[in-house]
Amino acid sequence: MSRVLVILGMFLLTSCGQSQEEKKDIAAVTCSIMSETRNIDAVVRVREMNSAREKIGGEPFLRGDDAIIESLSYELCEELVLNDNYDESYRLRQREIDREIDEAIRELEQESIKQKEELVLNDNYDESYRLRQREIDREIDEAIRELEQESIKQKIADHERRRLQKEEIIRLEKIRKEKLENEYEQVK
User: Taking burial as the number of CB atoms within 10 A of a residue's CB, which of 28, 78, 80, 103 is the most buried?
Assistant: First the structure.
C-alpha cells in the first residue's frame, strides 16, 4: 500500500506541470530570441510569444507586437511572457522613468541657473570695471582742476609733477586694465 502511495505521489508531482524555474527559463530564452529579431519581424516575435505561452500553459498573447517591443525596451519581457503582473511592473517602471526624467530636467535647470548666475557675475564685473574707469577719469579731472587753481609758478611745477603722475597712473592703469582683461578672459 505504501508503494502505491509513493507511486501515486510521484505521479501527482510530475503531472502538476512545469516548475516556476522552468517557466522562467522558457521566458528568458523567448525574450532572448525576440530581442535579436529585426524591427520588421513582428510576426516572429508574436509567434515566439505564443509558443512560449503555450509551453508554460499560459493564455494566448493578444496584445500585439508593440507591447512586445515596449516590454523589451523596459526590460519587462519575461513578465510579459509569464503574464506575471506585467501591467503593474510596467506602471512601476514607467514611474521610475518619469522620476529619472524629472531628475534630469531638474539637473538641467540647475545647470542653466548656474550659467545665468555666472553671466550675471561677468556682467557685474564688466560694470565694476567701467565704474572704476570713470572714477579714475574723475580723479584725473579733479587733479587737473586743482592745478588750475594754483599760482602759475606753482601750477607749472605741480602740472609737471601731476603730468608725470598722470602718465604713471595711466601706465599703471593700462597694466591694471590688461591684468583685469586677462582675468576676465580667464573667467570666461
Answer: 80
